[in-house]
Amino acid sequence: MCLHAGFFYVKIKNCVCTKQYRKRVTVMIKAAVLGYGTVGSGIVSVIENNADVIAAHGVDMHVKYILDLRDFPGDPFEKLVVHDFDQILNDDEVKIVCEAMGGTEPAFTFSKKAMEAGKSVCTSNKELVAEKGAELMEIAKKNNVNYLFEASVGGGIPILRTLNDALTAERIESIQGILNGTTNYILTKMEKEGADFDAVLKEAQEKGYAERNPEADIEGYDACRKIAIIVSLISHKRADWEQIHTEGITKISSVDFKYAHKLGRTIKLIAACHKTEKGYAAIVSPRMIDKENPINCAQGVFNAVLVHSDMLDDSLYYGRGAGKLPTASAVVGDAVELARHLGDHFSAGWSAEEVALDPVEDSEFEYFVRCKGAFSDNEAALKAAFGSVKPVDASEAGEFGFTTSLMKEGSFMNAYNALDGKLNYIRL
Amino acid sequence: MCLHAGFFYVKIKNCVCTKQYRKRVTVMIKAAVLGYGTVGSGIVSVIENNADVIAAHGVDMHVKYILDLRDFPGDPFEKLVVHDFDQILNDDEVKIVCEAMGGTEPAFTFSKKAMEAGKSVCTSNKELVAEKGAELMEIAKKNNVNYLFEASVGGGIPILRTLNDALTAERIESIQGILNGTTNYILTKMEKEGADFDAVLKEAQEKGYAERNPEADIEGYDACRKIAIIVSLISHKRADWEQIHTEGITKISSVDFKYAHKLGRTIKLIAACHKTEKGYAAIVSPRMIDKENPINCAQGVFNAVLVHSDMLDDSLYYGRGAGKLPTASAVVGDAVELARHLGDHFSAGWSAEEVALDPVEDSEFEYFVRCKGAFSDNEAALKAAFGSVKPVDASEAGEFGFTTSLMKEGSFMNAYNALDGKLNYIRL
Question: CATH class for domain B361-427?
Fold first, then answer.
């Protein structure tokens, strides 16, 4: 054991203490990176370019292998590339595996085998965590290693670590997140330029901010997986992302933003969950949020997560939710934490038991609705259908808007579906 | 050793695992709370009211003693109150001491003795940490215990933990913080209501948001201690808060806000530091910041810290920077972390060696200046004195404003001090 002045305690084999921390030998770690795509190459960059920073936190880490099917001639790390996972698996010097392959297979099998061989694993793979997280955490526990996945939610924002390690005295009551950079980029552009969805999506695709097959982002599925991971983490039980009501942003128009501005609001794709009497409620949908809401600080590709808890009240965590280096940085931050806990299973997680998610019909919201015609001609019928309503005048020809009071989703959808001339609705 | 399904690994003596986590015996901790004022009573509330939440994070914690000179007849915890610190010191069952006394003495002596007796200490006492932090960290190290102080900066915002444990792969380049709730409350009120400083301060005092002796807040000393702690943490060396150039908000007027709005900006008291070639630069001063700056999400008593680092780019942490329960929650979050690491010295810190702080005269800023007269009459002289300048017209009779390009603080102050009719200056 070596207690370096002013630095972290680390278990090390050979300690040569000097006053220059860069010369100190601390915990020596060889890592393997699975997948040499965008995130994987970012991980290698962060580990090797910031080795001195990581060493100052007590961990001397280097990459020993990069697993990829391809070769990378001319790449500065080409000699580290291997094609056979068993080479990593059978090398006892490799204690940490950074998985950046994406998808469930072979990422699942490789992660499982790595942990069974006594290696800890960290990942940016939200599909895998949302799908097979409980199983992988169980494997980690059985093998006295750890499985960390900070980068799977909010990219570089340390939200999972905050929930696990900092807000440990807090009863988490609700979490609202802007968890998808692509949709936030599109909505921010639409707001600032008065442009419509299709045009902005096309531009975002050209600039590389949206994929050519953008459904996972614009239909809300990506945000849904992330809020499912958050619900799992705070409930300690598996949240099935397929049970979470999810709406994307494809129906949002520049006209909707005009009404939002009239209300002092803007429109964001919000992934939200809160504790209920029976369990949790979760939903992903566009929301008209107050311009003063601190979550609105997330403009463009930035993400933000607003946590409401009983003692601390509101706290917010903001940063780049995607991108090569921010995502890689979160994976490497996990790798450092894994290195600090070699031989100790400490990582939080959830069981395979499913958390009870309330049906969306039972949730309550206020709603904004756009409709053809004039408010004055429809006021009585609207009140009969929606209860208390307030007109919103954005001076749009041939249509009007109104907001409702708090009402149950089920009642609202019944009334909305029966509404003549309906154009769009957005939850407040 | 007990590995609870889905929960943290904790070292425990007697483990009775059941499926109901609230019944689980995990790590049993008795804590003592020093000082039963606002924060101290908050700490007791958080530990006892959220004992089930804390247990779900693997720590069964209860308060055994509360040290205070006073008695608290009728208080639900009156039986825990003791007047003699030695009673705590000599009780080996007490492993964690939460210090909420404020000031340097007797807080320093008690913290020192507690750690020498093998107890870990957490605190909200920023004066003590800024003044004697290095010494206390050294004592923690020598005694294989830990000294944590999350609540000393940003109240309930987990900024120190984020810097220590999450952003471990990041080269921290600069940090800007709104670190004082009182001044942010005053500036927010001034902005929203067009009111002047004295009137808002008086109201804040009446409401309890400002102290009767408000100098530590309004002159920036509180924010200064906090940024000194941040500089110490990221440089691993002691930053002397008395060496940090500090200006408060007493000279800010409603007229300044009019000019700020003309520039699309607002005014915040910003505690800032950045890495320089030779060491670090740090300053506390009012700043005219862009309205779109995410740090501007901190309105009223809220605090926010914006971190710029090389891989992650910008990330921001927002929450209540003061107040009984948020501050207490951060102390208890530290206590949980201490409980998880009994017997392991892990806490980060800094050495007694002083970090090199650049003289403020060498720092570069753009400046906003208000001056009597008309811009057109003074343009030539202003250009001669300040270099490139741009007028700002807020339609104020008998005066004008202008902004400079980036210039050295030393050059600016020379020019400003020689300026006839000068009214105020604010750094951008």
Answer: alpha beta
